[in-house]
């Protein structure tokens, strides 16, 4: 009887020690997770901004021109909002007029990129951040917006240079965020729920565009967004 009692006491002490050690380990693990989460979110404290490299672009060859801060919202995508769409727009104006509009704080809208008829690309908002381009908050948070210079009723505005440059850009975006190259994930502004826009219009050649994106996607490295 005494031997059994001693054994029970020993087991109880071992069990209590295991519980303490296990609890301490769990607490330590929780503390590490909490520390990592705080390290990721510290910049959201009022007055603190996540470090960014001034003038950095997410697509090699793009020219950086900053949009007005009234036309986008600072974020930490894809950590806070997963990116799973590319939305195609047409400017209904010239390249330069689109740049000026997105620099205007009264415009209240901007895309991440503008592609010109000559194939030049300007980035105005970092992919990290949420651009006000789709007219739908959920779609804004989940997408990259690309404007294309021209008018929806002028098929001649949609040049070979524009299609090819835009396809390379979209391919890199799809590679970066593992976005499928299909019409469920690459869509026109007209397809966004609640929008009253018609772009990219009836002359936008989706079959041609997706073929170009797939070809470029095959050659595109799985790049990551810059700081």
Search tags:
8 strands; 2 domains; Amidase_domain; two-stranded antiparallel sheet; about 230 residues
Explain the overall architecture:
By secondary structure, this protein is of the alpha/beta class. It has two domains: 2-44; 63-219, 3-Layer(aba) Sandwich (Lysozyme-like). 38% of the residues lie in helices and 11% in strands. It has five helices and eight strands. The chain has helices at residues 2-41, 95-103, 137-142, 160-177, 206-219; strands at residues 63-64, 72-73, 85-88, 113-115, 121-123, 130-131, 143-148, 186-188. The strands form two sheets. Strands 1-5-4-7-3-8 form a six-stranded mixed β-sheet, sandwiched between helices. The longest helix is centred in the first third of the chain and has 40 residues, at 2-41. The model is unreliable at 1-29 (pLDDT under 50).
Percent of residues in helical segments? Answer: 25-40%
At the third CATH level, what is the topology name of the largest domain?
Answer: Lysozyme-like
CATH class descriptor name of the largest domain: Alpha Beta
Tell me the total number of β-strands: 8
State the low-pLDDT regions, or none. Answer: 1-29
Topology (elements, then pairings):
Layout: H1 2-41, E1 63-64, E2 72-73, E3 85-88, H2 95-103, E4 113-115, E5 121-123, E6 130-131, H3 137-142, E7 143-148, H4 160-177, E8 186-188, H5 206-219
Parallel strand pairs: 1-5, 3-7, 3-8, 4-7
Antiparallel strand pairs: 2-6, 4-5
